[in-house]
Specification:
heterodimer; A: alpha+beta; seven-stranded mixed beta sheet; 27 helices; B: nine-stranded mixed beta sheet; 11 strands; globular
């Protein structure tokens, strides 16, 4: 057989540099092996020590995040996803991950495989995915290339998730020129598993057979992890073959077979093959088990003839898993995969010498120490140089008095423009392409509440879940912006009736070797950590995506937060944003002694109306945020609240308009009072945090007051729900008087106008 | 009552149909594996939604060759009740139990949302108890739900009262705006000649409980139970 004869390039420093290793790193490899690495070994080191797999430039900072809590069953980084005990003997496995680079060159497959990859992280733990979320960011839709990316990403997410059969229930989509050429595509999955029935990514038990299961292995995705560890450039188009190709049908079969296999007791350890494929799974499982592994790559089922051991080890073909089987249970495992018409081929066994040894027709082609390759073992850890970015001096110097305020006569027009701006407008065009209901657990799907609510069958409980981040805030004040990302995600969960319990995060930043990018990264991570501590939502894991740059510079720093909340009683607590009943009282829940702040910092209003990304991030004090969220959750739990919606992009006026639009029939009569020196635009469109609009039945007002007083939180009566238009007066002067139909039309047509 | 839910590789609404039959209506319910040759002793077969065989070639085109389909066809021809939902409807068309075909949606995009349908037939076991004066709000979720058949077939379906549901607006008018996928004559579901086989694109199993926002779909299951003499 010609495939047995190997002719591989000679490994030199130059070749190592081409593989993305530094001279210093290559030196460490040579020292560890006490010889020149083989070509396969060079490939293994280059992917394992890539930014994507090793987290070498981020892990030192990530380890400072709060990661402990009484509900946390698996500490961040220990398994493929975070695991949280939610009571009733159930646990939730959840994680978010980026697929930005592949989506930038091949949006459909890039996004699709992002969805597939995150699902495998969940079901490899023995959890059945119950819902998916995502977080998407693009440049301006005026650019046809951006429309192509947007359309492809949405189709990719839809086609993969719809076929796989897990509902996509929530997410966010935003647009800013900084994402031109480098879209952000983050996918999140949430799964349920019984406590104590999870599987682990570990290789133990000398002599236990190692199986590759699922799809056959092809040449797709070779060096995908390395590709994700460099900047997008004009040359990136040539990396299109680095993008994997997804097959949701096979993934669905793999899901069912994997859960059956774990349930059968035949599985000792299991890990999905994502970035760096067979290399990463074999090294990480060995290192975790303090064991080793012998792999015969010539036994791996391949889909293209002539594949070399280098290619097989580095392939990122999708829908594959590596399983360590209990010796003696081979036939159980094989029969399950046969039932589902999938490969299950024994390719090696567990050893005890802590080395991963790769054979090609009996000949050793790689022999590497597992622990030296992995994060937490010998993989490099760096703290990079930092420098406060120069742009901050300019953005902070912004003086609101340099721009004209809105007037009572033009504020309605401004509100209409905001409702039609892409970041605020309805995302119906997107989420109607996703199956949001399959598996019949979706109690609140997209567009109805600040977070989605899914039930857990067989209980009264549910999960409230949301992804959130405002990249503009993080750009303007990385520390506070990082805090707001967590605070707003938690507030969203609270508004839909859940108690926030933990987060996963996806940190999308520029090139970490640029000192200003690294400074922003550090500040944002610290801000997130402070908010997680204050809100008691520990970090369970996630993903770092650096090198999100295009020729114009870095994207807005975007630490996407995936928030998990628990709804104790879905019948009582599930809450949506819409106005419900004429005559209901509209309340603004806000921090103690609150007055309308003179704060238009970082607002959508400044961006849309004045084309400015300027100022600080809007006001946030974590202690205030904690009080407001706690009070809102208490009120909802007691059953006093008819509707809840947090004040975010577009400010209070936009928030009220959205409650009206969502009701499909109702409007409101609202009177606002502000101090004399407060700008009208700040009152209507300012984005100061920690504010929630509630609607309450009149008869519950006294009970509500008792609770808000007790908690030291302001509850300002703004007005009442009516069957008429949305009328807002400020200090007695009418500023907004808009028919719901008019607002609704603008809000619903903005994205279709570009895309249909 | 014994419900049997067929499981093809790629079915993904199988558990949803099972849950409604078993836990909402408290009926005996079992899964039937596609590689089996007999459906066993069941009173109603549900072919659930999903992407059997990944919709390779055409949706439903491969599933019809699964071993179990021979017995489903036998069961249907003997008068057994068969309900095909979404991908199940596509499979019923491919297997010849129902006429016509389901093409890509007119807008060439997958669409998932609540729509309205008007019951047109009040005699079949699936629709007997429905009120033809009122509309049902039911979710759809498909990329290929654009029903097509030759004109003479469409006329026959109408003449023989075999159109089970038409897409309509909230006032029951079958307008082109209320047609979510371009289906001929707003057809959302059809019956076979004997009335014991129903294929429909909307998902009644997704709206059979109030907690999911709406329970109009429960009426179709109730009709099945009433028709077979089960007290509801």
């Amino acid at each position: 057989m010609s495939t047995e004869v190997l002719s591989e390039p000679e490994v030199t420093l130059e070749l190592a540099l081409e593989h993305g290793l530094t001279k210093e790193e290559y030196g460490w490899v040579v020292t560890a092996l006490a010889r020149t690495p083989t070509f396969v070994e060079l490939g293994i080191y280059s992917v394992m020590w890539s930014e994507h797999c090793s987290y070498k430039n981020s892990i030192a900072l990530l380890r400072k995040l709060p990661r402990e809590g009484e509900m946390i069953l698996v500490e961040a980084g220990e398994e493929n996803a975070g695991l949280v005990d939610i009571g009733d003997g159930l646990a939730v496995a959840f994680k978010i991950e980026s697929h930005n680079h592949p989506s930038a060159v091949e949006p459909y497959q890039g996004a699709a495989t992002g969805v597939g990859g995150i699902q495998r992280d969940i079901f490899t733990m023995g959890a059945r995915p119950i819902c998916s979320l995502n977080s998407l960011r693009f440049g301006s839709l005026d650019n046809p290339r951006v429309r192509y990316l947007f359309d492809g990403v949405v189709r990719g997410i839809g086609d993969y998730g719809n076929s796989f059969g897990v509902p996509t229930v929530a997410g966010e989509v935003s647009f800013d020129p900084s994402y031109e050429g480098n879209p952000i595509v983050n996918a999140m999955s949430v799964g349920i598993v019984k406590v104590g029935e999870t599987a682990s990514a570990i290789a133990t038990g000398v002599g236990n057979p190692v199986y590759i299961v699922g799809s056959s292995t092809g040449r797709d995705g070779i060096h995908g992890a390395t590709f994700a560890s460099e900047e997008i450039s004009e040359a990136s188009e040539a990396k299109r073959p680095s993008v994997q190709v997804g097959d949701p049908f096979t993934e669905k079969l793999l899901l069912e077979a994997t859960l059956e296999a774990i349930d059968s007791g035949a599985v000792v350890g299991i890990q999905d093959m994502g970035a760096a494929g067979l290399t990463c799974s074999s090294c990480e499982m060995s290192a975790k088990g303090e064991s080793g592994m012998e792999i015969h790559v010539d036994r791996v089922p391949i889909r293209q003839v002539g594949m070399t051991p280098y290619e097989i080890m580095l392939s990122e073909s999708q829908e594959r898993m590596l399983i360590v089987c209990e010796k003696g249970s081979e036939s159980i495992l094989e029969s399950i995969f046969e039932k589902w018409d999938l490969h299950a081929v024994q390719i090696g066994e567990v050893t005890d010498d802590k080395r991963v040894r790769i054979y090609w027709y009996g000949e050793v082609v790689a022999d590497v120490p597992a622990d030296h390759l992995v994060l937490g073992g010998g993989a490099p850890i760096y703290e990079r140089e930092m420098e406060r970015p120069a742009y901050l001096t300019k953005t902070r110097a912004f003086d609101p008095e340099s721009i004209p305020d809105v007037t009572a006569s033009d504020s309605a027009d401004v509100l209409i423009r905001l409702l039609g701006s892409l970041n605020i407008a309805s995302k119906r065009w997107v989420f109607e392409q996703y199956d949001t209901m399959v598996r019949t657990n979706t109690v609140v799907g997209p567009g109805l509440s600040d977070a989605a609510v899914v039930r857990i069958k067989g209980t009264n409980r549910g999960l409230a879940v949301k992804t959130d981040c405002n990249g503009r805030y993080v750009y303007l004040n990385p520390g506070k912006g990082g805090q707001i990302a967590v605070a707003e995600a938690a507030r969203n969960v609270v508004c839909s009736g859940g108690l926030p319990v933990a987060i996963t995060n996806c940190l999308n930043f520029g090139n970490p070797y640029k000192p200003d990018v690294y400074w922003v990264f550090k500040e944002a991570v610290e801000g997130m950590g402070e908010a997680c501590k204050a809100l008691n939502t520990p970090v369970t894991g996630g993903n770092v995506s650096f090198y999100n740059e295009n020729p114009e510079g870095a994207v807005f720093p975007t630490p996407t937060i995936g928030m998990l909340g628990v709804v104790d009683d879905i019948e009582v607590q599930t809450t949506t944003m819409s106005f419900k009943e004429e005559g209901d009282v509209i309340i603004l829940l806000s921090p103690k002694d609150w007055i309308h702040r003179n704060d238009i910092n970082g607002s959508e209003y400044l961006s849309v109306i004045h084309d400015l990304t300027a100022g600080d991030a809007p006001h946030l004090l974590l202690s205030e945020e904690v009080d407001v969220q706690h009070t809102c959750y208490t009120l909802i739990k007691k059953g006093y609240i008819r509707g809840a919606h947090d004040v975010s992009d577009g400010g209070l006026a936009t928030c009220l308009a959205e409650c009206s639009i969502a009701s499909e029939i109702l409007g409101a009569n609202v009177q606002l009072t502000a101090t004399k020196n407060t700008r009208l635009d700040a009152v209507l469109f300012g984005e100061a945090q920690s504010r929630i609009v509630l609607t309450v039945e009149l008869r519950h007002m006294d009970s509500l007051r008792a609770i808000t007083d007790e908690n030291g939180v302001s509850a300002t009566r703004l007005g009442i729900v009516t069957e008429g238009p949305l009328i807002i007066t400020v200090n007695g002067t009418e500023a907004v008087n808009l028919a719901r139909e008019k607002m609704s039309t603008v809000y619903n047509r903005a994205i279709p106008a570009y895309m249909n | 009552m014994q419900f049997g839910i067929i499981e093809f590789p790629g079915s993904n609404c199988d558990h949803d149909a099972y849950y409604v039959a078993k836990h909402v209506f408290d009926q005996q319910t079992s899964f039937i594996w596609h590689k089996d040759h007999s459906i066993g002793d069941v009173d109603v077969v549900i072919i659930p939604g999903g992407f059997s065989y990944g919709d390779a070639l055409r949706s439903g085109a491969i599933a019809r060759f699964s071993p179990i389909m021979k017995d489903v066809i036998r069961f249907a021809n003997n008068g057994g009740l068969v309900l095909g939902i979404c991908n199940g409807f596509q499979i019923l068309c491919e297997s010849g139990l129902l006429p016509g075909a389901l093409m890509k949606n007119a807008l060439l995009r997958f669409v998932c949302k609540n729509i309205f349908v008007r019951p047109e037939n009040r005699t079949s076991p699936f629709t007997r108890t429905l009120d033809s004066d009122s509309v049902l709000q039911i979710p759809i979720a498909h990329g290929e739900g654009n029903y097509i058949a030759a004109d003479d077939v469409l006329c026959r379906l109408e003449d023989e009262n075999r159109i089970a549901f038409r897409y309509c607006n909230d006032e029951g008018e079958a307008t082109s705006e209320s047609n979510p996928n371009g289906s001929a004559r707003n057809i959302a579901g059809i019956l076979n000649e004997a009335g014991n086989v129903l294929g429909m694109m909307p998902h009644p199993e997704r709206c059979a409980e109030e907690i999911l926002g709406r329970s109009d779909g429960a009426m179709i299951f109730e009709s099945i139970l009433v028709s077979t003499g089960v007290p509801v």
